[in-house]
Amino acid sequence: MVVDPHHRGEVTWGDKDHPISRFKRYITERGWWSESDEKEWQSESRKNVLTAFEKAEKTKLAHYHDMFEGVYENLPEKLRRQRAELDQHIEEYKDHYPMDRILPKNS
């Protein structure tokens, strides 16, 4: 373990003394874990992550106006201007946003 002088309080671990590496070595030495377990776990985890991404990509997104709602009874002028600027930006660059996944406006 080395304390990084450039990042106050940040710890840099070497491969040998990293807590996760030490724990893996500990359970492997006792026969509780193996390289085949590791490969199987990595494969299963990868499938789970990809399935979660696929599901998330199909989920509809809240309308971007929703981030301006529900905080103020009357939206301040500054936020109205920001919302109008965002509308302009999205209109100009709509090809770069997943507009087909955004839910319609509430109001």
TrEMBL record:
Chemical reaction(s) catalysed: N(6)-[(R)-lipoyl]-L-lysyl-[protein] + 3-methyl-2-oxobutanoate + H(+) = N(6)-[(R)-S(8)-2-methylpropanoyldihydrolipoyl]-L-lysyl-[protein] + CO2
Residue ranges occupied by any Dehydrogenase E1 component domain in the UniProt entry: 14-62
Highest taxon of source: Eukaryota
Known cofactor(s): thiamine diphosphate
Any Pfam family the entry gives: E1_dh
Similarity remark: Belongs to the BCKDHA family.
Protein name listed in UniProt: 2-oxoisovalerate dehydrogenase subunit alpha
Organism, scientific name: Caenorhabditis auriculariae
